[in-house]
Amino acid sequence: MAEQGPPRRGNGIVGVLKEQTSKWERRAPLSPHHCAKLLKTGVKRILIQPCSKRIYRDAIYKDSGCEITNDLSECGLILGVKQPKPETLLPDRSYAFFSHTHKAQPENMPLLDKVLEKRISLFDYELIRDSNVRSVYFGQFAGYAGMIDGLRGLGEWLLSQGYSTPFLSIGSTYMYTSLSVAKQAVLAVGEELKSSGLPPEICPLVFVFTGTGNVSRGAQEILNLLPHEYLDPSRLHELTDRSPSKVPIKGINFKVFGCVVSAEHMVERKTPNSGPFDKHHYYEHPEEYSSIFAKTIAPHASVIVNCMYWEQRFPRLLTNKELLDLRSAGRSRLLVIADITCDKGGSIEFLKKYSSIQNPFFRYSPEDDSTQNDMEGDGILFMAVDCLPTELPRESTKHFGNALFPFLVNLANARKLEDTPAPLHDACIAHEGSLTEMYKYIQKLREATPVQTPRRQERQDININPLSTVVSLSGHLFDQHLINEALDVICSGGGRYRLATWELGQSDDETSRADLEVTAQSKEALSGIVDKLAKIAVQGSITRQGRMEGREDGFEMPQEEACSVRGGSQVLILGAGRMCEPAVKYLTTTGRQFRAKKDSPVGDGSIDERVSVVVASLYIEDAQKVVAGVPNTSAIQLDTSDVAKLEDCVSKANVVISLLPAHLHIPVATACIKFKRHLVTASYVSEAMQALDEKAKEAGVALLCEMGLDPGIDHLMAMKMIDSAHKRGGRVQSFVSYCGGLPAPEAANNPLGYKFSWNPAGAIKAGRNPAIYLQDGQKIEVPGEKLFAAALPVQLRSTPAFALERLPNRDSLIYGDLYGISEEASTIFRATLRYLGFSKIMDALGELGYFDIDPHPLLDSNTPPTYNTILDALLLQIFQNVEESEEKKVGSGDNNSLAHALVALDCCKNDSAAAESAATCIRWLGLDALEPVPKSCRSIFEVLCKRMEEKLTFGPDEKDMVLLHHELDIAIDGSRERHTATLLAFGETGDSSGLKRPESAMARTVGVPVAIAAELLLFGDVKTRGVFRPLTAEIYEPALEILNAMKLPLVEHVEVL
């Protein structure tokens, strides 16, 4: 009898199970950081079962506000990673874990029976989808770990063969504290490889990756940390050609080579001259194809990294005989096979057994078809570890928590299934003692299967009677619930079915197949059922063959597999300015791919190509200059005021980056909402943009703004520091942020100590915005015209050699609310950095009248005035209110007359040094020159901008600099700490050839963040929708990690006050 008691479901209390399936299972569904946030956002309590092997210690969970106990009986929601033991399940709760039951897997049916018996609501992580994209997946982690472990094995195997290589320095993935540390180890090996090289006898060292899914992408990402070059499969023979006439490849032993192969490179039609390869035909009729891998790929491979899914109906990648023949003929270079798929006797026929994390390698001898657990003899080294993601428990746990976090407050408090959002509702297999509607097919499959096994039986075993036919279903039957729909069609049509054959895809990327023998009482009823199945065939690949009333009547229904895309994933970048180039470079060199969205065209559920980028500009030449020589890019001319053309471009992209002026973002955002495309900008959130929030949420679209430098990276740094302080129980007493785009010190060679990497007009206007900030509890307001006068010297601990000043930057108070510190911080201050002396000169220019944007009478004449005439007019205007004696005192006859005249300005009174600096700058800019002002200038402000544009630009050998600095004073445990974080980046200079366009620090620190954001949205890593800023861990954690890897690191320091 089932256990009795009041239902706990929906009581707001969450439990986390201790994992007991494997000693290596150190993952958890939530990190302490996630727990702390949940306890602040709607979860009442979190109870953690104690576990000494979990990647995060119990004490850290306790510090985050969790309770450590074995007793989870008070919990309404219980989370695990793998399946718990059936006998430990508590009744009338909600559980979430990988159950492996939704395909009616026979070995897990006892667990499902216990779930039903105890009236449990079972939510399966594998079934949680957002916009039809699976939220929780670990294929990429398997790729990371498999490749790192494979490199370790390669180093040890080569040593046993008498070759010392840098790979010996690499350990297994679990030996590193994090993926980042492991990557650093691989990078270090890459540096050694570049300087010392590899033994020529083993070169070229060629890594062949099979498949293009998440696993393959993860493995390739590790290889990309080494000096490398990728080749198309058709060119592999050129690399290993040893003929006497072959010209040696320069530097072949100072890098490794990669080659990614998919089905089209592995097989060919058995019938000659059958036309080009057709992937859909291959998946439907694999028996018409034979493998050519042993002939075209294997002879050139040093390491095979097997990442592809395989079923017995497909040709094998490599058979025992093929490998033996290659070795006998002296045509095999194969050293290592890293079989991440771990399919025993599968695509690689001679995989005889699995290995383990603690003993990851074994030696295979093709000559006697034997395996040995050593490296002492001849053969091939194998790695076939079947639980690789557990080697990255920290990253896996973060991924788990990030994916689950948006749903957990709802799930913890939902008493009824209908109270949950669609992704959770659709992931619920059982509820209150019954299978949910979407998963009732599980019981039908159990009843329809005489022998419960996922292995396929021979079609000859199927008995076709005169009123029956066989319907073959293939595709994502379970992930897309096509099996459920098909069974309902049969039953509602008065028919019956028998599950004759059955093959289960074991992962999200894999398709499943089922042959259903359908019977009916009449020909008309059977035909009606088949017709209805044909109507749902647009959601799955369905074929029918059989006979009715003795007549052979095989035919193929329309085929279109759900959830798939043809062609590459596309990012549309609007605007071809300097920020565009780093964004394009980042997106086209990552080589990452993403799972297709629900509304995509047909295909296999994943994208084979790298990310492609389309750069659109009003001036096609600008866009062409950006994409010149960059693979997977194209340039188009686009006037964004042409709404029809703008919408056409947006509709073809997956994510849009707008680098246009801020006022042009709104029509772009509107088009993105219409076509359900995500948008990234570096601009502040305007009122007009914020007004689109609800529409964006309804459309499931992310409009991510303020993702540049400032705003952008400053948000990422701030929230990382603030969240960390709050997690430790601290209170932020003071938040101070400085940011400046400056010339590098050696390029600050003018009186202002400043040069422009963007429009001078925009930079000057930004310096005239009013500001407000909080200082020791007091609100301080600075009018725009007084902003330069409010500048004060500042010296940063991280850059003591820089003489700097800071100017208040706009409204600092809003950041108290944005960052969640308005109730605790008495100081909230954001400022712009300039070199010392800049503001006094700019203040003098402003008071003199050079910031006047109104048309000036002198500039309205047919004869343009000289710059000196304009200066004299401005000086005369100042002297109109000066007494005659004072006017004589500052007469023009003195050699320092200009400096003396400027003393009349309020900003220069009693400060002769400031007047002299301003006079020096005026002369240096040529504002006293006798040459005529260009006719295009209509205001004094335009005169100043024209001169600054001519004089304050970077030379070809000069670099800019970006300096971003945060200071947080934190009160914690009765003491005060000062936490600082600094980002210092320098731009590039042009090379001697003049072919390379230098990349400025400002362009890189704006262009790269928007590209990172686009990438995170492409791959489903960001779940937030609507209009928002990058203030959450789902963005700042991966973004800061990527910036660090791209040599844009934060330097952090903690000081006890």
From TrEMBL:
Pathway per the UniProt entry: Amino-acid degradation; L-lysine degradation via saccharopine pathway; glutaryl-CoA from L-lysine: step 2/6; Amino-acid degradation; L-lysine degradation via saccharopine pathway; glutaryl-CoA from L-lysine: step 1/6
Organism, scientific name: Ceratodon purpureus
Domain called Alanine dehydrogenase/pyridine nucleotide transhydrogenase N-terminal: residue spans: 15-145
GO cellular component: cytoplasm
MF GO annotations: saccharopine dehydrogenase activity
Positions in coiled-coil regions: none
InterPro entries, per the entry: AASS, AlaDH/PNT_N, AlaDH/PNT_NAD(H)-bd, LOR/SDH_bifunc_enz_cons_dom, LOR/SDH_bifunc_enz_cons_dom_sf, NAD(P)-bd_dom_sf, Sacchrp_dh-like_C, Sacchrp_dh_NADP-bd
Segments forming domain Alanine dehydrogenase/pyridine nucleotide transhydrogenase NAD(H)-binding: 185-384
Protein name as catalogued: Saccharopine dehydrogenase (NAD(+), L-glutamate-forming)
SUPFAM superfamilies linked: Formate/glycerate dehydrogenase catalytic domain-like, Glyceraldehyde-3-phosphate dehydrogenase-like, C-terminal domain, NAD(P)-binding Rossmann-fold domains
Name of one Pfam family that matches: Sacchrp_dh_NADP
Domain of life of the organism encoding this protein: Eukaryota
Family membership noted in the UniProt record: In the C-terminal section; belongs to the saccharopine dehydrogenase family.
GO biological process, one term: lysine biosynthetic process via aminoadipic acid
Keywords, in A-Z order: Multifunctional enzyme, NAD, NADP, Oxidoreductase
